[in-house]
Amino acid sequence: MTRYTAKALPRQPGVSGWVAMLPDRRPRPALLGAVTADVAIIGAGFAGLAAARRLSQLDPTLQVAVLEAGIVGGGPAGRNSGFIIDLPHEVSAESLGSDSATHARRDIFKNRTAIALAQGMAEEHGWGPEVFSLSGRYSIARGAAGDHHLADYAKQLEGLGEAHRLLDAEETARLTGTRSFSSALFTPGTAMIQPADFVRRFADALRDPVTVFEQSPVLSIERQGSGWQVTTKAGTVAAGRVVLAVNGHARSFGLLPRKLMHVFTYASLTKPFDPALLGGERNWAATPALPMGTTIRRLSGPEGDRILVRSRYTYNPSITVSDAALASAGRVHDRKLASRFPDLAGLPMQYRWAGAMALTWNSVPVVDEVDQGLWLAAGCNGVGATNATANGIVAAERALGHLSQLGQHYAEAAPARAIPPEPVATIGGKAALRWKEWRAGDE
Ligand SMILES: Cc1cc2nc3c(=O)[nH]c(=O)nc-3n(C[C@H](O)[C@H](O)[C@H](O)COP(=O)(O)OP(=O)(O)OC[C@H]3O[C@@H](n4cnc5c(N)ncnc54)[C@H](O)[C@@H]3O)c2cc1C
């Protein structure tokens, strides 16, 4: 009898500021007793929710049960920096030959398909710009290496016909209220979300015949006739098909051995401050010019403004991080805040947290039927607001035998390459992250 048993369940380190800033919400009830469904989805992050939405678009009569281990919004999908990015990070790495142009265009198509799904939800349910907004993003530089990278990237975008605007140091200071940045590049197609609010509303908008069960960690998935029995602590779902959308925790079910690298990243959010203390615009969001640098987001709200700092990556094959790692990243965030915003000297952080991501060696997604009727959507590769959403869309389509253009692109992509055996993977993974962070310097 085929059975996949969860060897570990997710734990969410620290206190996510995105959740803490929201009013209380009554979670959907946990699964109790035995239910049946056409499709069971495990995990209510970007991938699981997108899969639920896509299934109900393709067949509104499908009975779908979504099982989330924790509270919706408490996991990585609700604790990220909120960028649903349309353009690939790395088009500027090489000059665009026809292969890399095709690759970049496919990436953009994937990302925009994901953004369209999120935008469709926001428009259908009337969510305001504080939840979802097509406000674009800045890439921001703090020195010559970053400036150079942005100028190169702008040329590549030109070649792709993608809208963008370079800002010099003066314009960047007008945007950010600080002279700590040397240039920026604006691209208009990124959607910004309040991630916890977005995924909560997303889950709450899913209605019968889609049912979301929270606080229902799946302990096993077992073959039952031609379908599967999914078991939680207090209930079971008998389903014809299963979509496992737990990102790196696929490994906890014994799936994708040696295919996923488990990396955490960290964020801190300041206490609110009086907006008069810092010039510039009151709502902007910037990813770093150089990969592995620091993300900064300024938010305005009724109690004042806040700054989000996201930086540090750690390699954690245990899919957990210690309090010490969280505290250490927090000290880095404090230094980054102080060096970038001297006008906010002494402003303390109020919340600090971390979240898990799963990367593949060659940065490809994994959407596969790993066993008959058991579909996997994994490999967010660090930008799961787009990648995991797209993975969920494709997993849903393929589970119903539907082939879209996006699904066709996935089918033509290279398979995920195996990572080296232990301990080489961990030693190499840690060393590679350190080296890349060192190269990013103060960016
Ligand atoms: C601080 C931070 C900033 C980030 N910023 C960005 C950003 O701006 N843009 C971006 O694109 N990405 C960002 N990311 C990455 C992004 O959050 C992830 O790539 C994304 O959440 C992955 O989506 P997912 O649906 O694949 O997995 P997850 O969001 O991890 O969702 C998987 C869900 O499965 C659940 N689960 C696991 N095991 C079980 C089980 N046994 N039973 C039931 N449920 C289970 C988990 O609780 C979880 O809710 C950031 C991440 C962090 C931590």
UniProtKB/TrEMBL annotation:
One of its GO terms (molecular function) is oxidoreductase activity. The keyword Nucleotide-binding does not apply. The chain crosses the membrane at residues 30-52. It comes from the Bacteria. The keyword Transmembrane applies. Residues 38-398 form the FAD dependent oxidoreductase domain. Keywords: Membrane, Oxidoreductase, Transmembrane, Transmembrane helix. Its EC number is 1.-.-.-. This is NAD(P)/FAD-dependent oxidoreductase. It comes from Tabrizicola soli. The lineage of its organism: Bacteria, Pseudomonadati, Pseudomonadota, Alphaproteobacteria, Rhodobacterales.
